[in-house]
Specification:
five-stranded mixed β-barrel, membrane
Length: about 240
Amino acid sequence: MNRQAQAVVMLLLGGAIVRASVTDMYLRYVKESLQPFLIAAGVVLIAGAVMTLFYEILRPKPHADEHSHDHGDGKPHREPWVAWLLILPVLGLLLVAPPALGSYAAGQAGTALSSQQISDYPPLPPGDPAKISVLDYASRAVFDKGVSLGDRTVQLTGFVAQGPNGEPILARIILSCCAADGRPIKVGMSGNAPAGLADDTWVEVVGKYTDRTVTDPVNEETIPYVEVETWTQIDPPKQPYE
C-alpha cells in the first residue's frame, strides 16, 4: 500500500466517522456527550488525508515501482497487500449499521446496580407518572428500599430480556464511555407484566414500587421488581443507552 492509498483509506475513515457523528449512528457506539470529539477527530483525519494526497500529487514521481521500496540491498520490495485489510473496518462503518447492545448482552453480564449505589436520592420529578430511568428506579428500590419512591407511579423505558426464572424483565444498558464498557441494569416485572414479546422489544412500563427481588445468577446481585399497571410497546429510542 503506497502513501496515496494510505491517504485514501484515511479519508474514508474520517468521512465514515463524520457521517456517523452527524447522524444518530454514533449513539450506538459512544455516549452522546462525545459527539463533538468524534466530529473533530473525523475532520482531522480528512484534513490529514487531503494534505497527504496534495503532497503526493505535486511531488516528483520516482522511477521505481510506486508499490515498492528499497531495503538497502538494491532491490525494490513490494509493500504487503495485507495492509489493504485496513479498509474492511472502514467499509463496515460506512455500509453496516450494527444494532445497539440489547438482550444478549444483558443475559451475558450481571446487573451493574452494585456499582451505582448512592446514599441520598432527590425527590422524584413532578408528573403522574414520574418519568425516571431504569437505573434510577433500580437504585431507589434496592438501596433506598423504595422510601424515595413511596406510592408514586413511575414510568420506565427499556427493552425486554429474559430474566433469571425465564420470565421477561425490563433492561437498559448503561455506558461509562462507549459500548465496549456497556453494562446492563435489570428490573423484574410483576403484576400486569408484558407477555408474548420477543427479546429486544422496547416498552414503556407504568407501575409502582414493590419489595419483591430476585438474585441475578450471573453475579449474584439483587434485581428489584416493579409492579406493572400498564405497558406500551414503542419504537427503539434515539438514545438506546442510559
